[in-house]
Amino acid sequence: MKLLITLSVVVVVVIVLLSAFMFTVDETEFVVLVRFGEIRKVITEPGLYFKQPFIENANKFDSRIQLYDIPTERIYTKDKRTLLVDTYAMWRIQDLELFVMTMRTVQNALTRIDDVVYSNVRNVFGETDFDDIISEKRSVLLERVTELASVEVNQFGIELISVRVKRADLPDENREAVFERMRSERNREAALIRAEGERDAREIRAEADKQAQLIIAEAEKQSQILRGQGDADSVAIFAAAYGQDPEFFEFLKRMEVYEAGLRGSTFVLTSEMEFIEKFLSDN
Length: 283
What we know:
four-stranded antiparallel sheet; 9 strands; 8 helices
């Protein structure tokens, strides 16, 4: 039992000594070896490393892109509107030694990013009208904010990758008034569009009626011409037929008159009537 306890103690001491002498660096980490507050070494490659126990500290930092959610701030636009802007920043450590020398900790870096981003959002949005901020132009404005803020944080070893807006809302006291103004403007625009549509519709209908009248008139003209030509051809045909056999033609016309005059009626005819006399003489 005493041997087992002794071995356990030795194992614990060895583990403690090893942890004091050695440390590992993950592929997602940067490490700075600090001796009495002075940076001795910057390690950016993963692996197993050694340090002097008790006098050197291995401070680890995340090497990946990090997201910082910036608290909602009140912004005033160029046209004196108030806007509540909720932004976030994507950043990472670019120069670890400079970062440790200037910021010391990640929390200090986040405080600096917060100040820089808010200052530039306030300045850029303050030079822009409200309608442009809530339109597709906002992405261009945010690119400008990212560019300006990057210049300021680079001096702390920080790379600012992007600044984006999660939400941009009106304060409760202004929201209804702005929405009412927007509704009025949209209604006015809709009325103008409807009026222009009615005007265009009247012009189209008038042009269509004009074209229809021209087409009908042309059709009537062609109809009259065709009917005249038909009548002329008919007269010519009848004249030609009459000229070939005048007696037969006269007889045929008389039969047509008899058929039309006597159909469905009862007449008392005498030989003295010119009508029946012609009929009897033909027979």
